[in-house]
Each structure stands twice: as C-alpha cells, then as structure tokens.
C-alpha cells in the first residue's frame, strides 16, 4: 500500500479504495476461471428482460433460433426471471444424463405452484416427488404397463376406435376427439380400473377439459404470469386455466370417492385402489415416506397421469395419420409390410421386430411431430455445463426439438424420412438422438405404455383404413403447420378413413 502511495502520491482513503477494487477484480477473475463464466445471451432490459425479443406463441422455435446466435447454452430473461436454454443433442444429453442429478429438478412456474401446491409428480420436487414417482412407476407396471396386461387393454379399445372411424363411411372427419377418447380410456382403465363409453357426457367433459387445460398451459397469458406473478389476477388466461383445473380436480375427486366407497382390500381394480390400500397400510407405519401418502398427492398424481397420458399420445397418432395421408407412397409401403407380415390379423407387440419399415415410420413420425418440444427443469446445485457456470435454483429450458432435428445427428432433419431409422439392408436401427420422452431423472414414466399404444393403434388403423385428404384437397395442400401449446398438435384438419379391401 505504501508503495502505491509513494508511486502515485495520493491520499490513503483513495489508496484503500483502489486496493479494494483491484482485489475485487482479481477475485472475480479467479472466481470466473475456477467456476466458469455465466452463459452468454442477448442484452436484457431492466424488468422486461428479453420479453421484446420473445415470440410467446412459438416459444421453442424462437429459443432454438436464438441458440444459433448465442450458442448451445445461453441465458435469456423472461421478464426479471433468468432462464438458461440448452440446445443440441450432445449438450442436452450431457445435462439430462451425465449431469442428471444436477439438472433433475423441475422448474415450476407460478400457475403450476398455485395448482399443484407441490403435490403429484409433474410439478413437484424433492422427497415427495421421488416417492410418488416411484410408487406410480411400480404400480403402473403391476397393472401391466408396457407388458401383456396393457396390450390386452389396448386391443380391446381398438374395436371401439375402429367402430367410430367406420361410422364416418369414408367421409372426411376430424379424428381428434376419437383419438383423445381412446388414449384417455387406456390410462383411465389403468387408473380407475374401468373404461368409459365414448358417449358418456361425464367422460366427454373430462377429456375436453383436459385438452383445454393443456392448450392454455403454454398460452401467452400464462407465460406472462410466469414472468410477472404480481399481474396474476388481471390475466384472463390464468383465471380460465385455474377454473379449468378446478373443474378437472372436482371430477377426479368424485371418481376417487366412488372407488373409496367400494374399496375391496382383496381386489385392486386400478392405480387408485393400490394407492388407497397403501395409504391405509402407511397409517400404522413409522417409515418416513408414510407421510407422503395423503389425499392431495393421490389427487394430483391421478390428474398428472391422466393429462400426461392422454394428449401426448393422441397428438402423436394425429400427426401419424396426417403424415400418412400427406405421403401416400410411405403409407403404401407400411400397408404392404403389414399385409405381408400379419396377413390382416390383429397386430401384437411381438410383431414389431418383423415390421422394420413400419417401426421406422412410427419413430420418424414421433421425431417430426416433436409433441413435447421443450422441457423445463431447474438446477439442484451450482453446476458447470460446457464451461459455463449455472447457479443452484436456475430455471433451465432443454429443447428436445433441437435434439430431434439436430443437423449433426439427422441426415435430413426437416423432411419426413423413415430412412433415418433404417440401415442399407432395410433393418430397423435405433438412433441415440431419438429422445421424444426426454432422458435421465425426469424421463417420461409412461414411455413404454405410450410406445405400445402408438404401435398397436397405428398399425391396426393402417390395416383397416386408407387415409386420404378430403375430396378436392391435394396431398401437398395438407397443412403440416404445428399449433404450439404445452404440447404440439397439427393444425385442425379433416381426413377420410376409407375402409380397405385387402382381398384385392
Ligand atoms: C407420446 C406420448 C408421450 C410423450 C411424447 C411424453 C413425453 C414426456 C416428456 C418429454 C416428459 C418430460 C420429461 C422431462 O421433464 O425431462 C414427460 C413426463 C411425464 N410423462 Fe410423458 N409422454 C408421453 C406419454 C405419457 C403417458 C402415456 C403417461 C402416463 C402413464 C405419461 C406420464 C408422464 C409423467 C407422470 C411425467 C412427469 C415425470 C416427472 O416429472 O418425473 N406420459 N413425458
């Protein structure tokens, strides 16, 4: 200090300040070198953050475009809220799998905090989440998820679905409702132990409300609420969504009440019975996890399974049928393979290995559809990704869509090309960057069920029907523009399902 004073001949207070400043700069430099620097990103405004640069109606596309400018790990401000975006196969995989613990918490926007209150699986963290996820996975498996049990349920449901399609007698119709009813019946029969009639008004309401909720969950109004929670009461989307959630929960409560009243300890009809029986057992247990088996966790877990299991699977099938109508030469090849291998009998899961082209088409339709393009996590501790330091509790958006269309992984990322999943001998090949169900700690728990449903529904529909555009619309006119919500669906459309005559 004396040297500085001698050299510059300045008073001691100033010297002290300069010294502190130098030390601070040195500390920051060393700290940045040890812990890595923060991810870069566009300059942000106070309070508004990067709001003016965001396209809230097509958020994941917008975030993907920004990744091309700022790199695969960058920071964006959602109003005052910091969000780190991760794009591209290698880095998304590194975060989800290699750093699975560090990136494995859920970022829970305020609207889902208001709704779920930390219960259930999708919008929960910590020990309660862990216990509910573990219980749900093992109970769903007990009820045959991904095994013979659910195969039988799906095959039973197929008869009702094809009946609906047949009733249109080849005339154009929107298949959304039928496919939503079908996929919700699969999850309903696992949760409640029974399916519903498609024309049961109570069931129709339940499915329609779920669809509405899922659409609103990523609406601009709800995203604004995420940025500025204090605006909450003035945002219409938030209000309508909360009313929708309330309606859904009231319906589920009624279903649970009926099951509780008729519970038989010797016979578990579905997930809810298993939970109720486990809950009774836990009442006398002193184990720590016994405290998690309360009614709120049951209600929210059922709501999560129903919503996550219905819309995603139905949307994937809608994309599949649309793509078949749009690319008739691919539909020809699928139908030729199905006829040759199964001879028109009901397909079974074990047929998959003998249907490489069909399997490739199903994978490719999931790749192109990108039904869940973005997943929101948060960091459970300070972590370094690609040399960038990210603090504990930071919200992270992982772009699954950027993995499914990563140019360094896919030969023709923006075309519908089943060859992505075939070798030169026409055999099915797995691709590492095929990640529509995410990966790691938060991997979708319904993956095996969804894959089974998609395979059995898709193959049976293609055995029975030829899918074509409505009269007067050419294949190239079929609109492939996605509609963005919490999940991505095709633009509303109609198709004809012409019954096939396989005798010719
Ligand atoms: C094509 C159909 C489906 C797709 C594309 C899909 C995709 C996904 C994705 C991307 C996630 C988020 C993972 C993450 O945060 O990293 C997820 C989570 C989840 N999915 Fe699925 N899913 C499908 C079907 C299902 C079905 C049928 C069920 C019900 C059995 C289900 C239940 C869940 C649950 C409960 C979670 C939350 C997991 C957690 O937070 O720990 N999904 N799904």
UniProtKB/TrEMBL annotation:
Binding residues for heme: 444
Entry's localization field: Endoplasmic reticulum membrane; Microsome membrane
Transmembrane feature ranges: 12-30
Protein keywords: Endoplasmic reticulum, Heme, Iron, Membrane, Metal-binding, Microsome, Monooxygenase, Oxidoreductase, Transmembrane, Transmembrane helix
Cellular component annotations (GO), alphabetically ordered: endoplasmic reticulum membrane
Full protein name: Cytochrome P450 2K1-like
Pfam families for this protein: p450 (PF00067)
Sample GO molecular function, one term: oxidoreductase activity, acting on paired donors, with incorporation or reduction of molecular oxygen, reduced flavin or flavoprotein as one donor, and incorporation of one atom of oxygen
One of the GO biological process terms: aflatoxin metabolic process
Xref: SUPFAM superfamilies: Cytochrome P450
Cofactor(s) the protein needs: heme
Source lineage: Eukaryota, Metazoa, Chordata, Craniata, Vertebrata
Entry keyword annotation includes Amino-acid biosynthesis: no
Family under the similarity heading: Belongs to the cytochrome P450 family.
């Amino acid at each position: 200090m004396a040297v500085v004073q001698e050299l510059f001949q300045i008073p001691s207070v100033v010297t002290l300040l300069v010294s502190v400043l130098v030390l601070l700069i040195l500390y920051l430099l060393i700290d940045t070198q040890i812990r890595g620097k923060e991810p870069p990103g566009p300059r942000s405004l106070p309070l508004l953050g990067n709001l003016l640069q965001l396209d809230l109606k097509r958020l994941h596309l917008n975030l993907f475009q920004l990744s091309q400018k700022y790199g695969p790990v960058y920071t964006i401000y959602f109003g005052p809220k910091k969000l780190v975006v991760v794009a591209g196969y290698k880095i998304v995989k590194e975060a989800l799998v290699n750093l699975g613990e560090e990136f494995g918490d859920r970022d829970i926007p305020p609207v889902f905090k208001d709704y779920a209150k930390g219960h259930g699986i999708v919008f929960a963290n910590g020990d309660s989440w862990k216990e509910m996820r573990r219980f749900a996975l093992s109970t769903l498996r007990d009820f045959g998820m991904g095994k013979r049990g659910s195969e039988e349920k799906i095959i039973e449901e197929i008869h009702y679905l094809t009946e609906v399609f047949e009733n249109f007698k080849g005339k154009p119709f929107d298949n959304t409702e039928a496919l939503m009813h079908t996929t919700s019946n699969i999850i309903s029969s696992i949760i409640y132990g029974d399916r519903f009639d498609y024309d049961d008004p109570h069931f129709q309401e339940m499915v329609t409300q779920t669809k509405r909720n899922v659409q609103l969950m990523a609406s601009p109004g709800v995203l604004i609420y995420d940025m500025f929670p204090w605006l909450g009461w003035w945002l219409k989307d938030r209000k309508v969504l909360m009313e929708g959630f309330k309606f859904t929960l009231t319906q589920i409560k009624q279903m649970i009440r009926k099951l509780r009243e008729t519970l038989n300890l010797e016979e578990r009809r579905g997930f809810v019975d298993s939970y109720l029986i486990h809950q009774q057992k836990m009442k006398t247990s002193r184990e720590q996890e016994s405290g998690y088996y309360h009614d709120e966790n049951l209600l929210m877990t059922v709501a999560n399974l129903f919503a996550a299991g219905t819309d995603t699977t139905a949307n994937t099938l809608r994309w599949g049928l649309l793509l078949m109508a749009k690319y008739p030469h691919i539909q020809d090849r699928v139908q030729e393979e199905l006829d040759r291998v199964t001879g028109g009998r009901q397909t079974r899961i074990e047929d998959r290995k003998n249907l490489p082209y069909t399997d490739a088409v199903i994978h490719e339709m999931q790749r192109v559809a990108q039904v869940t393009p973005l997943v929101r996590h948060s960091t459970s501790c300070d972590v370094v990704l690609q040399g960038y330091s990210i603090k504990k509790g930071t919200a992270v958006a992982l772009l699954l869509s950027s993995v499914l269309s990563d140019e360094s992984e896919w030969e023709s990322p923006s075309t519908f090309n089943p060859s992505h999943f075939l070798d030169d001998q026409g055999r099915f090949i797995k691709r590492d960057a095929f990640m529509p169900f995410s990966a790691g700690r938060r991997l979708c728990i319904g993956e095996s069920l969804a894959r089974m449903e998609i395979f059995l529904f898709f193959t049976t529909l293609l055995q029975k029907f030829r899918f074509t555009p409505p009269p007067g619309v050419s294949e190239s006119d079929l609109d492939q523009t996605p509609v963005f919500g919490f999940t991505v669906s095709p633009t509303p459309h109609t198709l004809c399902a012409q019954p096939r005559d396989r005798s010719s």
